[in-house]
Amino acid sequence: MEYSFAALAEPNRRAILGLLLSSERSVGEIERKLKLSQPSVSKHLRVLREAGFVEARIEAQRRLYRLRPEPLLELEEWLAPFRRLWTKHLDALERHLDSPKGRKR
Amino acid sequence: MEYSFAALAEPNRRAILGLLLSSERSVGEIERKLKLSQPSVSKHLRVLREAGFVEARIEAQRRLYRLRPEPLLELEEWLAPFRRLWTKHLDALERHLDSPKGRKR
DNA sequence: CAGGCATATACTAATATTGGTATATTCCCG
DNA sequence: CGGGAATATACCAATATTAGTATATGCCTG
User: Tens-digit pLDDT profile for chain B (105 aa)?
Assistant: First the structure.
C-alpha cells in the first residue's frame, strides 16, 4: 500500500498502466507509444513492478509486461470508506452517523 | 487529477483524510491525534487543500477542515476501467462487453 | 560465434519533497 | 489595548525522484 500511491503519482506510470489495460506490451512498444526513452520506460516499469502493479513475462529478448490486479484492488479498498461522500443517500447516512452512537465527542 | 495521486502519496496526508472521515477537525486536533508538528500539519493541509481534498471553515482563530469528495470521485473514476481485472464475473462481463452494443471499435 | 536487438542498470545533474525552526498573522479575552 | 492561542508561512538542510547518457547483459540470427 505504501508504495502504491507513490507509484501512481507519476503521470507516465499511469499512462503505462493505461496502455497495459488493453493487452500486454513489450518495453519497446511502450517506449514508442508514449514517446519515452527506453531507460525511462525500464525505470518506470521497475517502480511499477516493485509496487506490484505489473509483472513481466520473458519471451526471447523481450519482456512482455502485463497488469496485476492486487495493488489496484487495495486502492479500491482504501477508497471504500470515502464513498459515502458522494453517495446519493448521503443525507440519511449522515443522520445515522450523527446519532448518539455514531458521535465521537 | 494530476495532483491527486501526489497528494495521496504521503502517508500522513492519507492519515489526515482518514481522520476527517468521521468529522471535521481543527489543525490542533489533527496535530495531537497524529502526533505531528503544527507546521507539518499546516503544510500537509495546504497540499490537500490545493489538490481539492479538503476545505476549511474559519471559526474564530481555528480552521476547521473537512473533506471534499471531488478528487476522491475522480480517483474512483480513474480506477473504474481497471475493475474488470478483479471482477469475479469477468468472463460473463467480457462476453457482455463484447456484444455489439458494448463494443467500442 | 560475431553482430545486433531488446532491456536493464549505474551514474550524474537538476529538481522536488519533507521536516524543522523561527516568525508572522489573526483573533479572542481580560 | 496587550497577551496569548491557533494557524500559516518563510527559510533551510536532508533526502528523494526524475531524466539523460553511457554501459552492461542476454539472446537471437546469419
Answer: 889 999 999 999 999 999 999 999 999 999 999 999 999 999 999 999 999 999 999 999 999 999 999 999 999 999 999 999 998 665 555 555 555 554 443
Q: How far apart are CA B26 and CA B51, in angstroms?
A: 19
State the pairing for strand pair B25-26/B62-67. antiparallel
**Strands of the sheet with A25-26, listed across from one edge:** A25-26, A62-67, A54-59
Grid cell at residue A16: 503505462
Alpha helix segments (H runs only) across chain A: 2-8, 11-22, 27-34, 38-50, 70-79, 90-98
User: Which grid coordinates are listed for A57?
Assistant: 513475462
For chain B, the residues whose C-beta falls within 8 A of a C-beta of chain A are: 2, 5-6, 8-9, 11, 14, 17-18, 21-23, 67, 69, 72-73, 75-76, 78-79, 81-83, 85-86
Which helix (H) or strand (E) element contains residue B38? Answer: helix B38-50
Q: What's the CA gap between B14 and A38, in Å, rounded?
A: 33
- Residue environment code for A20-58, b if the CB has 16+ CB neighbours within 10 A, otherwise e: beeebbbbebbbeebebeeeebeebbebbbebbbbeeee
Nearest to B15 by CA among A11, A66, A2: A2
